Every structure is written in C-alpha cells, then in structure tokens.
Amino acid sequence: MVQRRRLRWGLAVLATVAMAAGTVAGCTGGGDDTGDGATPAAARSATPSASPSPTGPPPGADITGPLTLLLVGVDTRVSVPDWEPHADAVLLAHVPRGLDRAYLFSLPRDLVVDIPAYPEAGYRGGRTKLTHAMSYGSRAPGRRGKPDTAQGYELLRATVAGYTGLRIDAGAVITFSGFDDLVDALGGVDIRVDQRVTSLHRRPDGRHREPVPGGYAGPQMVYEPGMRHLTGWQALDYARQRYLPGGDYSRQRHHQQLLRAIIGKIHDQGLARQPDRVEQVVAALGETLLYVGGRRIVDLAYALGGLSPQAFTLVGLPGASIGRGRAYRGEELTRAGRGFLTALRAGRTDPYLAEHPALRVTA
User: Where does the secretion signal sit in this chain (predicted)?
Assistant: First the structure.
C-alpha cells in the first residue's frame, strides 16, 4: 500500500510540477548536454523501493543535471477505426546543471524532420512531419488496431533527440482528457489570455459542438484577453485552438502558458512536497498518463519540486511553412530557432536569449 501511494505521488508530481518544466527528467546528470545518451526503457509504471530512513539523505539528493524532459500531448480517438496516436503537442523542458531554473519550449507538430528506422514497428525511416513519429512507432506488427503508446513514444524520443542534439532523460505522454482532469483536480488555473480565442470545439456551457460536414455547428465558447480562471475543460479548450492569428505557433505559446499556470498552482499549494494531497490528482489521471524514465519519480519530485514558477523561462521557437507552390509540406525552424537549440547544447541559453529577446514568451 505504501509503495502504491508513493508511486501515485510521483506520477502526480510528474504530471504537474515536473511535467511543466522538466522536473521529472529521469536520470542523474553527468557529462555535457549533447547526445542522445542511453535510451530509457519505456514502462507504464516505475517500481518504487522502500522509503529512505528519516535520518538519511532526502530522495534524489544525488540528482544533479543537466536534465531534459520530453512531454507529449496526444489526442485520443480510440473510437475511430485504425486510430493511431499522433503527437499533437511536443514540448521539451531543459533544466541546467544547477537545477535552479528551467527552459520550456515547443517543437511544431508539423516540423519536417528525419524519423529514424524503427524495426520494432516495421518502420523503415523517412523524412516527414514530427507528429507522425508517434503513430509510426506505435504500430505493433500482428496487432492492427491496438497501437502501443509507449513504443510510439520511443520513436518520437529518438526523433526529437536526433533533431535537437539533446539527450532525453525521461518523458511523459498525457491525453487531452488527462489534462482536463488534472486541472480540475487542482481546482482550476489562472491564465492571462493574450488574444481573443474562439473555440472550434466547445459551446459556452462546455458541451461539444455538433459535427457537421466541413466543421462544427452551434454557439462557440470565446476566451477574451485578460486574467481568467479556467476550469479543466476551459483550459484544455483554450490551449488546443490553432485556427487563430499565429496558428500553431500561438497554440504552442498557450500550451506553455497552461503548463506554467499548473506549476504555479502546485507551488502555491505546496503539493510537490505533500504526497497525501497529490492523491486526488493521480486519482483523476488514471491511465491517461504514461511515464517513461529511469530514476524513481519520487526521487525526481523531491529533487526538483522546489522550483518556483519564476524559475521557468518560456521560449517560442519561430518557424515558417515550407513546400512547393500551394503544396504544404510542413514547418521548419528559422535561423533564430535553430540557434536557440545550439545555444542550449553549449550552455549559452541566457546570453542567446538576451541577444534574441523576441524568443521569450510572456505569460
């Protein structure tokens, strides 16, 4: 019972404090920030060991850095025939060696990348949109219609590591419904809505809009600029809209704002260091969260749960559409966006952001 409680606590902290800024990155730091490092084994749970003696060192006291976490948001449509999970939101959180700050940034879902061959899924490799790495990797030969999300994560992780040059220490995959439940379990979040956002999916009362040929019908929920307190469905609905000025890049910014708002709520309530209070969060999440990593989540939570929201820097990587004529192929990062990844690997993140202040995202 104690082991189960500690595992639940760790998952909750992963999905809150750590999920939003890399505070679940899953290994003891060492060496430089570059390279893919050892591939963490995908697992739907970690096996916690006995609690340390009260007189001994706290959990995770040996964890240093740098650490990098990959967070993936997946839209579950299991009722759709032959459905496969796509990486609808791809975020990375990097915590430097001192563990005193973190950088959170997104990669465009339509970023054109080289996806490596993945024999486990029968995938031969190719150059296409990043979002497809999850679906290609999730294919289990002989099990059509039963995608393996953990396997899909592994191919996405390898793809992201290859593109960014960062070692991915651990990660999490969470469904849209998991975000909804998470925010509700926290009592909602406060977000500064930075532009008028009209929902494609929800009515003002929270009900889903009626699907019709070519789109949806019915009244639309509208989020006006300013500080707003959002419930679970509202926070998720606001953060997932991309048919607005700025397109998917605006949506990436809203993803980051939502995650930092979650961090703030956890920090204000002191949940990161109070296992019993996190039980309600995990109860809401259920199987909507998949953790992939090496170190025990309880160690990571204790080691990094003290980071305040002010320690997180949100970074928006600019990009542009690529294609021939009217044929859209996807997105590519601009020189400034690629330069940020180079600076991150070299440990020059702050000087680079000082030289490119437009990359900083304000909450």
Answer: 1-20
- One-letter-per-residue 3-state SS of the chain: CHHHHHHHHHHHHHHHHHHHHCCCCCCCCCCCCECCCCCCCECCCCCCCCCCCCCCCCCCCCCCCCEEEEEEEECCCCCCCCCCCCEEEEEEEEECCCCCCEEEEEECCCEEEEECCEHHHCECCEEEECHHHHHHHHCCCCCCCCCCHHHHHHHHHHHHHHHHCECCCEEEEEEHHHHHHHHHHCCCEEEEECCCEECCCECCCCCECEEECCEEECCCCEECCEEEEECHHHHHHHHHCCCCCCHHHHHHHHHHHHHHHHHHHHHHHCHHHCHHHHHHHHHHHHHHEEEECCCCHHHHHHHHCCCCHHHEEEECCCEEEEEECCEEEEEEECHHHHHHHHHHHHCCHHHHHHHCHHHEECC
Quote the pTM value: 0.73
Give 30-84 pLDDT, tens digit per residue.
334 433 333 333 333 333 333 444 556 666 778 888 889 898 988 765 556 677 8
